[in-house]
Amino acid sequence: MKKDAIFDLSNVWKVYCKKNGACETQALRGVDLRVERGEYAALVGPSGSGKSTLMHIMGCLDTPTKGKVVIEGKDVSDMDDNELARVRREKIGFVFQAYNLIPGLTATENIALPMRFNGVGRADARRRAKELLRKVGLDEREDHKPSEMSGGEQQRVAIARSLVNDPDIIMGDEPTGNLDSKTGKEIMDVIEGLHKNTGKTVIIVTHDRRIAKRAPREIRMLDGKVVK
Ligand SMILES: Nc1ncnc2c1ncn2[C@@H]1O[C@H](COP(=O)(O)OP(=O)(O)O)[C@@H](O)[C@H]1O
Ligand SMILES: [Mg+2]
User: Fold this and answer.
1) Which ligand 1 atom sits nearest the alpha carbon of residue 173?
2) What domain count does the chain have?
3) Confidence at 3, pLDDT banded by 50, 70, 90
4) Helix axes 151-162 and 181-198, enclosed angle (nearest 10)
5) Which of 12, 27, 193, 203, by CA, is between 20 and 30 Å from 52?
């Protein structure tokens, strides 16, 4: 029997066009990829091979030029921005290399903000934000602003924020790329803990061989295609 696919991509293309209409960059050139529920995979390949483009499409931050992207049985290939935002909110937690926290807000407030957008009350949002900070091992930094935290601490806040809607899928585009190797390892421990303890599907782009080797599956890209 076929297992339960969380991602099913067939013949996915992404062509970037310039403002003058010239479409010259084929960032993805026919990607076929299946990821089962609960998998933990590293996405690797040389710079420019299409990793970020693929992550953005799988993470519903962008749409393919051609081809089919199915997430948990739902075809998202032709969705408009509102529909994509909804899938993203319900299913996907995204962690970026650059943390992308709001500078003027504390750790707690950064995590509470997306909940407030979803209509959660102020007190409930703060309570849950603090609970998520505990989960990533950062409860003693709850009132610190990003500039008052180390890179590793900021990334923990970003991970906590990605968990706000309890997504089935965690995606990271070089989440350890700005961190020293010891801190990067600690961040991967946090992400792996989520995979082990809650069965979340995890896909991480990384340049770091040691980090890639931790994942049971390696998805390798070359020139806009998945080669392995
Ligand atoms: N927004 C964009 N506009 C035009 N070209 C882009 C854009 N994003 C990426 N590209 C190009 O697409 C190719 C794949 O890029 P990317 O997906 O960022 O690769 P990777 O993450 O593996 O380094 C590269 O040639 C890159 O220059
Ligand atoms: Mg990239």
Assistant:
1) 21
2) 1
3) low
4) 20
5) 193
The preferred substitution site among 53, 97, 173 for testing ligand 1, maximizing ligand atoms within 8 Å of CB, is 53
SS3 116: helix
Computed over every residue of the chain, the mean pLDDT equals 95
Q: Is the dihedral of CA 215, 216, 219, 220 positive or negative?
A: positive
pLDDT at residue 2, as a whole number: 57
Q: Over range 180-205, report the average pLDDT.
A: 95
Nearest atom in ligand 1 to 56's CA? 17
* Best mutation site among 15, 28, 52 for ligand 1 pocket (most ligand atoms within 8 Å of CB): 52
- Ligand 2 midpoint to CA 48 (Å): 7
pLDDT at 139 exceeding the cut of 90: no
Asked whether residue 36 is assigned to any structural domain, the reply reads no
Instruction: Give the 3-state secondary structure of residue 42.
Output: strand
Ligand nearest to the CA of 25: 1
Asked whether residue 36 carries a pLDDT value surpassing 60, the answer given is yes
SS3 4: coil
The answer to whether residue 26 sits within a structural domain is no
Express as a percent the part of the chain with pLDDT over 70.
Answer: 99
Instruction: Give the CATH number for residue 95.
Output: 3.40.50.300
State the ligand closest to the CA atom of 54. Answer: 1
DSSP 3-state of 186: helix
Q: Whose CA is nearest to atom 3 of ligand 1?
A: 16
Question: Which helix H or strand E contains 112, and what residues bound it?
Answer: helix 107-117
User: What is the extent of the structural domain holding 113?
Assistant: 41-63+88-226
**Mean pLDDT within 94-122:** 95
